[in-house]
User: Fold this.
Amino acid sequence: MLPNLQNEPARLGSNENLLGPSPKALKAIEAWNKRMHIYPVTEDVGLTAKLVAHIGQGLTADQVVLGNGSGDVLGVIMQAYLERGDEVVMATATFALYRRVAASYRATVIEIPNRDDFQIDFDGMVGAITAKTKLIFLCNPNNPTGIIINRAEMQQLLDRIPKHVTVIVDEAYVDFADDPEYPNMMDFINAGYPIIVTRTFSKLYGLASLKAGFGFGNLDRIAPVRAIRQVYESGLMMYHGAAAALEDEAHIVDTLELARTGRAYLYSQFERLGLDYIPTQALFVTLKNLPIPAETIVAEALEQHNVILRDAKVFGMPGHVRVSIGRQEDNERGIAAIESILKKHLG
Ligand SMILES: Cc1ncc(COP(=O)(O)O)c(C=O)c1O
Assistant:
C-alpha cells in the first residue's frame, strides 16, 4: 500500500527535516535498490572513510562506529557497557531513550533535575558519580530544551568526571547550533578525554526513515562497542544514501536556512501570542510557562487542527510543549492551531 499523503498533519512533533530527504541520497538509494538482494561487498562500502574525512582532525576509522540511526548506536554503546547493577547518570529533562535502554540492561538510572534555567545541573551530575557509574549522558544541544553546553562548561565538566566513566555526547542536533561557543568534541577526544559522540542523518540530511547514524570517539572507549557490532550494521541503501547526503551541499544549505528562518518566525509568533519559550540551538522550540495545560494544547492541536506537537512530559519536562521547526507552511499551521486553542480557552 502506498502512503496517503492527503490530509497530512503538520508534523511538528518529531524534529524531522520537513524539507524532505537529500536529493543526492534519494538518487543513490534508487540506484542501489536494485542490489537489495545482495549483501554489501565490503562492510560499509566506504561510508566510514567518508565520515573520517568529514570529521577530520585526525580521526581514524577505528574510532568510528556505524548504526541504524543514532538511537541504534546509543543502544549498542549501552549493550557494550552496561550490566545489572551498573549506574548511569543523566539529566531529568533529556532524550528519553537513554533512560529506557539503560533500564533494559538493568542498570540503575540516576536522574539529576535540571536547574531552574533548564541547563543541566553540572554539580549535581558530578556529585552523583560513584564507583558503579559506567556512563554519563549529555545531549548537546539538549532535547527537549534546545540548550547547549558551551565549550567552557564542557571543559570544566569533563575535568571533574573520573576516568572510569565514559561520557556519551549525543549530538543529534549539532548542525543547527550556531552559537560560536558550541564545543568541538574532537578537540576533547584528541586531548584524551573518555568520550563517545553520537550523530544522526535523520535531521540535517532528512533521512529519518533510512535509519543512518554513527558514533566516534576515544579509541579505548569505542573499541568495546565496535567489538559487538555485527559485520553489516545495515544495508547498501543506508551506506550509499548516507554517503551521498554528506556531500549534498545544496540540501544542507537549504535545510539550515529553513531552520534559521523557521526559528525566527516561531520566536516572533510566540512573542505576538504572549508565549514564553526557551531560546533554542536545535530544530525545535520549547514553550514554557504555558497559560493552559500542555496536554490540552497537544491533544486539541491534533484532534481539531491536524497539527502534531510534542508534550515534553515524555522527556522529563511536564507542562512544556515542544514545537519542531518545519517549512513555513507547517510553522504557520502550528501557530494557527496554538492561537486558536489559546483563544478558545482564554477568550
Ligand atoms: C537527541 C536525540 N538523539 C537521538 C535521536 C535518534 O535519532 P536517530 O535514531 O533517528 O538517528 C533523536 C531523534 O529524534 C534525538 O532527538
User: Anything to note?
Assistant: The domain at 10-19+250-346 is CATH 3.90.1150.10 (Aspartate Aminotransferase, domain 1). The chain has a mean pLDDT of 96.
